Amino acid sequence: MNYQLVIQLSGDDLDALVRLEEAVVERLGDLGDVDGHDIGRGEMNIFIFTDNPRRAFDRIRPTLTGAFAAAFRQVEADSYVVLFPPGLKSFDVL
What we know:
Blueprint: E1 3-10, H1 14-28, E2 32-40, E3 43-50, H2 53-60, E4 69-74, E5 81-84
Antiparallel strand pairs: 1-3, 1-4, 2-3, 4-5
């Protein structure tokens, strides 16, 4: 798969992150593979490999509530393209 899609939330609730990750796996279907998560410094991330990051995001969007950000990059690239929220200028994974 050519892209990494990252869903980023603030917080440090591992149980909530795992529940969300499970919902994302179920909703994503054949559009990609969830590659795990990380948590630290007040940030939680779910990593997804996919060939169609925009379509994958559209499919999992209903599982995401509250404040979050979503961005993707080509697997070999360093910089991300922001999908959500509109107007977010930069995106980094700590």
